[in-house]
Write a structure and sequence with these properties.
The chain has 218 residues and is of the alpha+beta class. The chain contains 9 helices and 5 strands. Helix 2 links the parallel strand 2 and strand 3.
């Protein structure tokens, strides 16, 4: 066999090995991402009914227990969206309900009714925008919340009916059961791929997300 043939065989062997190890690494990374999602979704952090904002199959999951009447939740919403925008296709947001404030349970049911009409995000954002007008902790004006939802396009007659269905009641009950089991006592409370924040604030959240994204980057 001449030198040229030996060189060609060597190149083919190297390419074959590179492909094999590359595919092996890809399978390992993909399996790790799947294992992370299964671990998160198999816990009390994410349920089958949990609304997801962002790529459904993203390897990094931010779980936020939030109260629609919570001012800090309102302040964090654009921060979380910005963090997600920094990691497209890698990060998703799972929203869990923690209706600690008076009247928040009704607004949660309103948001869930909006989901049945395909208007989850528009209504959520409309309610957060109008929060200073309706979310008086002592005497919330839920009527103003309903008006904000209607302006976002929600069919209010249908929404009022859906709010009282066993399905939506069960969602609220399950989230309350889970936050109690997880000892969530304030909003917002964040978990990133099952990890709680080392300290509260936008920067610890951004760092923890970046760490988890770094684990799954190619």
């Amino acid at each position: 066999m001449n030198t040229r043939k030996l060189l060609a065989l060597a190149v083919l062997l190297i390419l074959g090995l590179a492909f094999y190890f590359g595919m092996d690494a890809y399978r390992d990374r993909t399996q790790a991402e799947q294992d992370t999602r299964v671990a998160v979704e198999g816990s009390r952090l994410v349920r089958m009914h949990t609304p997801i904002i962002g790529p459904q199959n993203a390897p990094v999951t931010i779980v936020e227990f939030f109260d629609p009447a919570c001012e800090t939740c309102r302040a964090f919403y654009p921060i979380v969206k910005q963090i997600m925008a920094q990691h497209p296709d890698k990060v998703r947001l799972a929203l869990r309900y923690a209706p600690f404030h008076h009247g928040s349970d009704q607004v949660v049911k309103l948001i869930e009714a909006a989901r049945k009409q395909g208007l989850y995000t528009p209504v959520l954002e409309a309610l957060l925008a109008a929060q200073p007008e309706w979310a008086d902790h002592a005497a919330p004006n839920i009527g103003i919340a309903f008006e904000a939802a209607a302006r976002a396009g929600l069919d209010m007659e249908r929404a009022r009916q859906d709010m009282e269905t066993p399905e939506i009641q069960a969602v609220l009950a399950q989230d309350i059961e889970d936050l109690t089991a997880l000892q969530v006592s304030k909003t917002p409370t964040f978990f990133v791929n099952g990890r709680s924040l080392p300290s509260f604030g936008p920067e610890p959240l951004a760092r923890l997300v970046a760490e988890e994204v770094g684990k799954v980057q190619p």
